[in-house]
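Researcher: Here's a chain I'd like modeled. Treat it as a single chain, no partners, no ligands.
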Amino acid sequence: MKDNSNISQELLETIERYYNDTMSKQERSDFELKLDENPEFKTQVEDIKTLIFGIENQSLKEQLDVFHEDILEPHFESSSASGFFTLRKLAAAVVILLAVTSFWWFSTPQNEKLYSEYFTPDPGLPTVMSSNSNFEFYDAMVNYKQGDYKDAIKKWESIHHKGDTLNYFLGVAYLADKNEKKAIRFLKKATQNSEFALSSEAYYYLGLAQLKKGNVEDAKTSLKRSNTDNSKALLSQLNN
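Model: Modeled as a single isolated chain. Structure tokens:
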């Protein structure tokens, strides 16, 4: 098993949602695609699953052992003291179990939780590279759809003329690559054209980027200008 001490909070929450079956259909599809295409990522996920469920199973085993000891233990004069220590063991096991299942919820700010719940990268465009003039764009799109955001960004950044679509995908790619500052920069450009076909989606991801940065009021403003269902749901939670 590899050392997973440096895994991100976001990945832990994603894995928890996956094994608890609380992912959206699209997020599960994207996650399983990444598992299939990235053996190293799959190994990391399985290691973390083993660690988490191993702790939970050990906690449950300790609880059962405690109950068995309590049932079989003779009731001598020292039974009160033994019962006290038994309760301490049980309490410790319960604390461990609760810590595993609630760690992510209590240790993460609300904005971070909402961002993790709602952020899934745009699935991207079909990678049809029949046109030589658009080869660079679609070549980068292949990287983007495989989750290689850094390579996709590098290729898209090299394209001199950046239209609304390119600005949009650069923004989403930067957001997926955890660079909210640059994501906001490109997504703002993508929202400047009200006729842009993905304008509503651009406002949604702009709102997510602003939320991740802690700019809640800016996020609300952006989300209000998007008509996607996720924007409306997220805005409702932010207003509660």
